[in-house]
Amino acid sequence: MPRRSLLAILLLLSMTALRAQTPVPAPDTADPAHLTWTGMDRPLNISSFWFTNSTQDEPAFAQPGYDDSHWRPRKRSDTLRSYWQRPSHVVWYRAHIEAPPGTKDLAVSVNGIHGPFELYANGRRVGGAGRIGDPGVFGDMVPIVYPLPADIAPDGHLVLALRTGILFTKDSQQGGLSTDSSLLLGAAAHINDTRSLSIFESLASNYTNLVIACIAGIVALGLYLSARGRDYLDLTLSYITLAVYNMLEMWEFTRPIQRSGFALLVTALLATAPVIFNLEFIRRILGRPRWKLFGIIQILLLVNGVVIQNLFVLAPQIFSFLVQGLFPTVLAIGTYALLDFVVPVIIYRAWRHGNRDAGLLLVAVLPSSVLVLAQISRSILILTKLIANSNNPLERVPGITFNIGWSEVTSFFASIVLLLFMVLRTIRLAREKAELSAEIAAAHNVQTLLLARATQPTPGFAVETAYRPASEVGGDFFLISPGQDGSLFAIVGDVSGKGMQAALRVSLILGALHRESSREPSLVLQNLNSALLSQGDIGFTTACALLVEKDGRFRYANAGHLNPYLDGEELPSAGALPLGISPEAEYDTEEGHLATRQRLVLLSDGVPEARSAAGDLYGFDKLVTLTRLPANDIAEVAHAFGQTDDITVLALALA
Amino acid sequence: MQAPTKVATRTATAASGAPVTILAFAGDIASTSKEPILEAYGATDGQKLLLDFSGTEYVNSSGIAIIIQLLLDATKTGGRTVGIFGLTPHFQKVFTMVGIGKYATLSPDEATALGLL
User: What is the pTM of this model?
Assistant: First the structure.
């Protein structure tokens, strides 16, 4: 149903082909002026036996005594353009019916007049819809029943007159009698039964699709609200608009409505929106860029469905074949060929490249896409006269009582598959999330154990440490290792990246440091660099290693990390590449002396790169005073300023 | 909070008269910047390259890794001369700290950077 505009254009194509093949018809051989109705047992079909006069609009045409012998007969399959190149915008039809005298409780059902009309019986107005002369389109798809007055035809002679308003476009007519118009005369009870059955047959598929759309919409909304994922918001909006459009269409089905141009645009927007939202949903699932192919198709769908296909109402004065015929046709075919060929191909390729969601998406869209492509191909073949315009096997599902189109079947199928998609995807994502949580918990445990081992009793030194990971598992590390000679080795570092990968690298580094036999800072960094390089391209690590002798003399080496601070003063070091980048990297040794009551502070970049809500960095300048504070206070100040990365602070002094 | 990275390419002439390709970065530089930066870098030619950070306020550790990767490729593999300018004092210090100064000159502005190439 969202593809209504496409189906309309395909119908237009078929009508154009039909008109081109049909010459102006000869009058019917049977006399259509007088129909004889012999019984009340079943309704009389009066759709084919009308006379038309398009040149005048006289109230006398409704009167039973009016002489219509000079009017032209009409065959049911003929369009008005078969008779006149430029008919009037009011067209009259008349029929004479001879019913058994004294017949009462009659009714006329009218269906498929897509425009305003007035119905007269023996000169009395008995019904109608809309106002003749107003632009607009009627939506009555099921019969409207007009009861006739009890005394309308005491002698059995009944003249029905129909005054219709027509809106003509270059290639079609809106209003008046057409091939899909149906008029029945019969007993009111029979006519009402026929109408009820017709409504049920016509709307059965609408009810089904409405129920499915509501269920799928509720599921999608629930998933959106629980996961806060934009993916399901698109699907929710798709089903909401689809349900609203379905309800509107069903409401229209049961009554004639004369739409204004604005109402027509709103309806067209509702018909187009589900496809656009669905496309956005698919784009997000496939991770495709917005403003490339998908964006182009969405804009084409919007322009085509809402504006171009409604030009005949928005700009009825333009009778240009180019504007109202060729251009909308080419645009519709191009847009839907893109949508129904390119998008399935993109989904298929994503599936082949391992996107696990793409498989079910392909199953959902493929039947609908194949149907639309087949319809386009058939219309092109008819236009080029390669095949005859016989009954369209692609339109209605054969062999069943209900009036169900293949497009409704594919729409139903897609909704069912998308429901399955949502359920299976939710289960899979929940399982993956649980597995990831278990992995993170395991990594957290390992990291906690390793960092606990990193802090050992430090005879001769007073050591403070503060460690605040930005997430459950961090990318910072530190290690403190007292030597048998009374020295203390310390290292603080930071691996690039976050999450599991960073946590695993931290574990790798701490393991390597525990195995390290040297305590010489530059050599430790050199060995660590080699260990990391042997793991391949796993990102880089900055680190500052420090060895303090028991008399306060210290040596340090730096691999792209923050320099140590001695009583608030930053110690110098030559810049050096971080670890894990180049085997040729060299780490110079710097020296200094830690006096009694002085503090050496090592910290990670989580401190100077703390970032406020306004985007300001904490910076290096304030470290001069900040590093004079206890380690925990330093970490707390950086955290309060705006922690964006792991924060590690290690402060040591001679005891 | 993170602004997407944009890279614009332009050309200039060094003090020596040699043509210089300038890659001007805008937005934050982080792990998501890898594709735009390396794509723009891959499209450059010529022996002299300038990286303009005047439109960049934040470079995280992943961003620094990308810049180091670019510099190592340009200088060691490609034998090109690279200069950097427009860094805030904070990132001037960070870049120095991670040893980028060994692979590229760090200048406060474009004119100075062109003069050094």
Answer: 0.52
**Residue B49 placed within a domain:** yes
For A200-210, the pLDDT digits (tens) are 777 777 788 88
Gap between the Cα atoms of A580 and A560, Å rounded:
11
How far apart are alpha carbons A329 and A583 in whole angstroms? 65
Mean pLDDT of the residues in chain A? 81
Interface of A with B (CB under 8 A): 494, 496-497, 539-540, 542, 558, 560-563, 575-578, 581-582, 585, 605, 608-609, 611, 615, 617, 619-620, 644-645
Beta bridge partners of A466: A649
| 3-state SS, residue A286 | helix
Query: Number of folded domains in chain B?
Result: 1
The CB density around residue B45, as the number of other CB atoms within 10 Å, is: 10
Query: Binning pLDDT at 50, 70 and 90, where does residue A20 land?
Result: very low
Show the domain range for B34. Answer: 6-116
As a three-state string, the secondary structure of A165-214 is ECEECCCCEECCCCCCCEEEEEEHHHHHHHHHHHHHHHHHHHHHHHHHHH
Residue A587: Cβ within 10 Å count: 27
Q: Which of A558, A582, A645 sits opposite B72 (nearest CB)?
A: A582
For residue A577, the tally of other CB atoms under 10 A from its CB is: 24
Nearest Cβ partner for A615 among B57, B93, B94: B57
Q: What is the CATH number of domain A28-191?
A: 2.60.120.260
Residue of A111, A115, A60, A107 whose CA lies nearest to A87 = A115
- Considering the segment(s) A455-654 as one domain, its CATH architecture is 4-Layer Sandwich (3.60)
Q: Where do we find the tokens 């209504």?
A: A4
Give yes or no for B3 touching A (CB within 8 A). Answer: no
What token pair was written down for B21? 């390709």
Closest CA to A414 of A285, A253, A242, A296: A242
